[in-house]
Structures are given as structure tokens and as C-alpha cells.
Amino acid sequence: MTGPRRWSADLALGARLTLSGGREGWARTLLAAIGVGLGVALLLIAAALPHVLQARHDRIAARDYPIASGEKPLSRSANTELVSPFNTTFRDKSINGLVVAPEGPQAPVPPGLTALPRPGQMVVSPALAHLLASPAGALLRPRLDHPIVGTIGAAGLSGPNEYAFYLGSDQLSGARIQPGTLDRIDHFGQQESGGRLDPILTMLVAIILVVLLLPVTVFIAAAVRFGGEHRDRRLAALRLVGADRRMAIRVAAGEALLGSLFGVGIGVLFLLAARQLVIPRFTLWGVSVFAQDVRPGLALGALILLAVPVSAVAVSIFALRHVVIEPLGVVRRSGSARRRLWWRLALPLAGLALLFPMLNSVHHTGSAPNEFQLVAGTTLLLIGVAALLPWLIEAAVRRAGAATVSWQLAVRRLQLNGDTSTRAAGGVAVAVAGGIALQMMFGGVQPDYTKATGQDPSRAQVMVVLNNGVTPATASRLVAALGATPGVERAYSLLVASIGWTQSPDGTPQEGTLILGDCPSLAALARLDRCTDGDVFIAHQSDTRTGEEPLPSPGRAVMLVPPAGGTGPQWTVPRTARSVTPSQDPNGTSLRGVMATPAAIAASRLRDPALDVYLRTDGRPDTLEYVRNAAAATPLASVNPLVATAQDHQFAAIRRGLLIGVVAALLLIGASLLVGVLEQLREQRRTLAVLVAFGTRRSTLSWSVLWQTAVPVFLGLVLAAVTGTGLGSALLAVAGEPMRFNWPAMAAMSGAAALVVLLVTGISLPPLWRLLRPEGLRTE
Questions:
Q1: Of 312, 392, 301, nearest to 14 (Cα)?
Q2: Which of 79-88, 142-151, 399-408, 714-723 has the lowest mean pLDDT?
Q3: What is the DSSP string of 485-516?
């Protein structure tokens, strides 16, 4: 029997030996399958990401509506409705709201709703309904104090835990259409492109995929090699009954193939369980996912399910290259021959060689980077970490001196056969090295995606804006409510309206701005030298070379016109009006125009003004919530916290995705380390029982287990810090950015990995104590 038939027969024999190995064989296979299954589940989730993102984008696009461009505004008809966004924030939760007012019986209904809510009624998402009904939403309820008549279906939500609502209204006026604030629509659904990422962000996404997925493959490769010592003894027994070395290797491949197939099945079960029981229940950084969206693509899913068993067989065969399997026993060459260093160094050097030609070649406005070259170079550098770590551990434990008994037991175990600990630590080191490199990259390019807003939060912390339906009574009521809000120290308000006049001598019509506010508001916002009620100021252009239109001079008659033009009452700029130098309000808007106090012109004479209210607050977290509640009583009033800087939304979304991936990677690290530690304990149970029988204390053995895990991980973290810093520096050089060391990020990544090791060790102590019973001496 030759060729494929022999391979098939030997693979089948290996599988049968595994299944007939009794409880020990099943336990070994189950541990390996769980380790492989964890990695397979994460790979399948990664393969489902394209569908998750596309489904999320499609639902958001289906509920968006076209904003009028102003060229051909819609006229009122039986199938139109007025809509106005009513977005708000409650602590760290973003709430998407939309006020709807149908203008006819055929007004469009947004996805997820069966009918539009009546005026004063709300339809809310399930997550928002739960929040409003819970004690945690007590401060939010006054803001959304409307009867709830239904819930939004999945078709109208980006995720199961999104906070959203639709509020019916009869207070919207079609005469005050303002695109983006108040629109008239005849359908929902807006086809928008997501926008192409610039080359730097494309580079970040490619590196994130490598950093998050490469440790998974390392963990899978480690899991398929569980139970190596027992497997080698079985192979020696096969040699004793007449099998040659090649047959023994094929039998070992059969065992690995069976374990990997079980692992694939367990991985699929993990995925199904996670998408139904875990994924929909969690929200990370504002992102939640429907279970039905977690669906790997057919091609990627099939590739993963086929590649894992093939890789398991290849890894199993490769692992036997240093093992001499003879009929009377097993000899591991690694015990006498040191690991070679040259090829381990060649991997990261090859990665650097691939990245070197790309130095200073990726820029914000340039062409897309060579993603294949970038991914290949990064992959080789990170694989170099996993390849160098066994050599580093071997060199370190060879020189380890004598200390406590627990230390000597751990070091001796690592000297004899520390492959299981080394492989698990390799996955940790790869993950940490990639995380450090990415944090350096994010820290290096973050200034390019963080822009100054021009706002000055030292003068005012919150701005409330009302652009529609402003009357003197409305403005007075809103300003009074905001001023009486708990935590608000002072409220400054401005009414901003348009004015028009005829410029002499050619009669050209001109338009400008009239700003009405009391002296405290004008003095605080415009920083005037002096002001009394009845004063009028003209804030002239400070640099006439910019070509700004002139302002009306003192004594000029101006027309109080609405923004859309037309005729209106006249008002004469007093001849006592003083010229002042323009300044900026806390929002960063230049206060150019005619500034008047209430005694100079009555607020009732203005036509369709906008109201800007600036608030100085005590800075307490809930003060902003009280302000939002006070503003919610006035329809269409928006609350905007003032910040000095703002971050690009695409950059922020990518960083949010990285943080989600890091959480998933840490969970995988912890689960894989736990499985690896349990496998070590299972292999050492007889040795541990003998040590206890000779009087070794349990605490000594517990510390020994900790050192066996901690020493490889510690050395891996040191290697990861060096490699991650080098990779991060190389990536910053590729992007043409100066090298910046992100020490807090490095400490956070290393600390998180160390914490995971401590937790895993703590969880493994109860199984260890059970193995230290005298029953562990029994054998068959």
C-alpha cells in the first residue's frame, strides 16, 4: 500500500488511537480542540466583519433622509413630512432622535416603524426604553417626557443596543426650512458613500488586521501540539510493534487532524453561542452588533475551516523534526543541541528589509500604500517575536541560578521541556508587540487628525443654539430656564439677525449682521472696554485687505430683513455708535457687525433671529445633563459642549475598532493560557503527586506553576517591548512621522498581559490542588 492510500490509512489509525485512548486520550483531545476552537471562533468573527459593517451601513443609509440643497426645495404635498434632528447625549451614551411632522396621509415612514407617532408621542428603541424605565435613566426622563407608543424594529437600528427615538410633533413650520436643521422630505433612504480612507488610515487598518489576527494563528499552532509527551510515548510503542519513522509521523498527523477537526466544530459552536448569547448583549465604545449580522463570508469561512486542519497537520509534522522516535523510547535533540539563532533573526530582518524601501512614502494626500509589502513586512517582524522567544527562554533558564524550591522546580521544568509554556507566551508576546507598535503609530499620527476648533471653553463651557421660531418670549423663557439650571453659574445670550441697506453712491444692496445683547453678555463675549444699556457698537473689519463688505456707518438707515430676504421694518444706526475691534465669541465665531443693547432696539423688531446662549458652568458631570433637560422644553434647541480640539471621525472609528479588537485578543490570550496551563498540569499530575507524597508543600508547587507561566511571559514581554518599539518606529518612518515613544501605552499593554497571566494562574490553582491528592499516584 503506497501513496495516498497509505497516508489515509495511517491518518485513520492515528484518529482511532486517539479515540480509543480512554479518558486520558479524550481529555487531551478535548483540551487541544478547545484551544483550536477559540482561535477558529475568533477567525470566523473576523471573517464576518465585512458583512457586519455592510449590514450596519445599509440600515443607517436606509433611515437617513436627503437634505435639501436649496436649488429645488420640495413643496408641501400628500407624501411629504417635516423632520428635524433631535440628537442628544446622556452621560456617555449618544441618543439619535428625529422629530417628525407629517404633512399628508402618505408621508413616508422610517424603517423599523409601522406608522408615524402622533404629536407628543414617541417610538423608541428597545435599549432606550429600558434605560428610561430604569433608575439609571431618572435624569434623562425629564428630557424625553413623552408617552411611548411603540418600539423601533431592527431594520431601523444600527445595532441592538442603539439609543434612538422618533418624536411626533405639530410644532414644525414649513415656512422655516433650514437644511440640516429643519427639512421637508418625501422618502427615507440616502445612498451615501462611506468615503475613502486616506493612505495613513488605510495603513493603520492593514496593520490592525495583522496585529489582531496573527496571535490567533500562533495560539492555534500551540493548541494543536498539546499532549506532546504522551503522543511521543505512543509513537515509540508503535515503533516497537514494527512501524517505521515515516508511519509514526503520519499517525501523529492523524491525531492532530482529528483534534483540529474537533476544534473546528467547537469553534463553530463557540461562534453560534457567542452570536446568540454574548455579542448582542455587549456595547463597546458605542458599537453593538445584531446576531444575524455575524455571518462569515462563504469564501473566507470555507478557507478558515479548511486551512486550520491542514495547518494542524503541517505543524504536527514540523514539531517532530527534533524528536527521535525509537522503539525503546523518545529522545529530544533540543536537550543537547542549542536552538539556532540565525534563522530566527533572519525573520525580523527580512521584515525590516521589506519596510525600508517604504520609508517616508505614505502621506495623507499621496497614493495608497503597497498593502502587500506593508503586511508582509509587519507579519515577518511579529513572527520573529514568536521565533526568537524560545531561544531567549532557553538562554535565560540555562543561566538561572538556584533560589527557592519552587523556583528550582519551575526552572528545571522549563529546561527539560518548556515548549507548552513557551508557545503560549509566544502568542502573548506577538499580541503585545503588535499592540505597542499600533499605539506608537496612533500616537504619532494623532496630531494630524486632531484639529483645533477655535472654541474657548475657558470663557464658556456650553452653547445652546435656537435657529427657528425665536420670539422675545421664547428667548426670554429659554434663557431664564438655562440660567436657573443647577450647576450653571452665568448665562450670556445674543440674538443674531440679518440687516440690509443700500451702499452709496452706486446703490448696491448690502447685507450684514445685527447682534443684540445686554451689556454683560456683550462685554463677556466681545470683551468691550465699556458698555451701558442703549449703546451701539460697530465691529469693523480689522484688515481691509481681505475684501470684506463694509458695515453701515452711524446714522445709516438699515432694513430688518429675514435671512431669505424681502422687506421689513427700518432702524437707524445711532450716530453715537462707537467703532470697536472685532473679537471672537467662545464658539470661535468672529463678532463682526452692528452690536446693540436692548435699549437701542427692541427684540420684538427683529425678524427671524437666531438665539445663541453661552453658559458658564461648575464643570460637574451632571450639569450638562441638567442643561440638556432645560433646553429640551424648547423645540429645536440644540446643546453643544465647547471643546478646544476635535478628532477626525474616521480616525476615532478606527481607534474604537482597535480597542474592541484588543479586548477580544486579551480574552483569547486568557482563555488560551488557561487551556495551556491545564494541559501542563494534566501532563505533570503524576510528578506533582509524587512530590506531594515526599513532603513538598502545596504552596511550593503553586508558586512553581506560577513561575513556569510567568517567566516565559515576562521574557516575552521584554522581547515584545523591544520589537514593538522597533516596529512602531519603522511604521512611523514609513508615514514620515517623527518617532514618539508612547510609554503609557506600552505600560498599559504589558500590564494587561501580566494581569491576564495572574488571573489565569489564580483560576488554575483549584485544579492544581485536586491533582495533588494521593490518588494521582495511581496508574494503569
A1: 312
A2: 399-408
A3: STTEEEEEEEEEEEEEEEETTTTEEEEEEEEE
Burial class (CB in 10 A: 0-12, 13-18, 19+), 346: middle
Please count the CA atoms within 13 angstroms of the CA of 514 that sit on its side-chain side: 32
| Rounded distance between C-alpha atoms, residue 294 and residue 42, angstroms | 11
Query: Of 635, 636, 614, nearest to 483 (Cα)?
Result: 614
- pLDDT class of 111 with cuts at 50, 70, 90: very high
Residue found under cell 443647577: 486
DSSP-based three-state secondary structure for 229? helix
Task: Spell out a b/e string for 613-626, using b for 16 or more CB atoms within 10 Å of the CB, else e.
Answer: bbbbbeeeeebbbb
Q: Which three cell numbers stand for residue 182?
A: 429643519
For cell 446662549, the residue is 613
Please state the length of the chain: 780
Confidence class of residue 487 from pLDDT cuts 50, 70 and 90? very high
Helix (H) or strand (E) holding 596: strand 593-596
* Residue 15 and residue 259 in contact, taking contact as beta carbons nearer than 8 Å: no
Residue with cell 408621542: 121
The number of CA neighbours under 13 Å toward the Cβ of 75 is 0
d(CA 691, CA 170) in angstroms, rounded, equals: 82
264 C-beta neighbours (distance < 10 Å), count:
22
Residue 714 has pLDDT above 70, yes or no: yes
Placement of cell 443654539 in the chain: 465
Highest mean pLDDT among 42-56, 66-80, 229-243: 42-56
For 559, phi then psi, to 5°, come to -105, 130
Q: Are 106 and 78 in contact (CB under 8 A)?
A: yes
Q: Are 389 and 715 in contact (CB under 8 A)?
A: yes
Residue 89's Cβ-count burial label (10 Å; 0-12, 13-18, 19+) is middle
Name residues whose C-beta falls within 8 Å of residue 694's C-beta, 6 or more positions apart in sequence. Answer: none
The pair phi, psi for residue 757, each rounded to 5°, is -60, -45
- d(CA 679, CA 709) in angstroms, rounded, equals 12
List CB contacts of 621: < 8 A, sequence separation 6 or more: 91
Handedness of CA 696, 700, 705, 708 (dihedral sign): negative
Task: Give the DSSP H/E element, type plus range, for residue 759.
Answer: helix 743-771
**Which residues have C-beta within 8 Å of that of residue 257, sequence separation ≥ 6?**
11, 14, 15, 309, 312, 313
| DSSP element (H, E) containing 615 | strand 610-617
Which residue is it, cell 465699556? 530
* 4-19 helix and 245-273 helix, angle to the nearest 10 degrees: 60
Rounded distance between C-alpha atoms, residue 482 and residue 629, angstroms: 9
Strand partners, 488: 617
Three-state DSSP state, 124: strand
Angle at 464 between CA 461 and CA 465, to 5 degrees: 140
Cα–Cα distance for residue pair 446/427, rounded to 1 Å: 28
Cis peptide before 641 (omega within 30 of 0): no
CB atoms < 10 A from the CB of 166, how many?
Answer: 26
What whole-number distance in Å separates Cα of residue 667 and Cα of residue 42? Answer: 10
Residue corresponding to grid cell 515613544: 741
Measure the CA–CA gap between 240 and 243, rounded to whole angstroms. Answer: 7
Q: What is the pLDDT of residues 618-665, one digit of tens each?
A: 988 789 999 999 998 887 788 999 988 888 877 887 887 777 777 777
| Integer Cα distance of 690 and 769 in angstroms | 13
**CB-based contact 753:432 (threshold 8 Å):** yes
Mapped to the 3 state alphabet, what secondary structure does 287-342 carry? ECCCHHHCCCCHHHHHHHHHHHHHHHHHHHHHHHHHEEEECCEEEEHHHCCCCCCH
Residue with cell 515526599: 694
Q: Which of 481, 483, 555, 491 is nearest to 518 (CA)?
A: 491
Note whether 437 and 731 are within 8 A (CB): yes
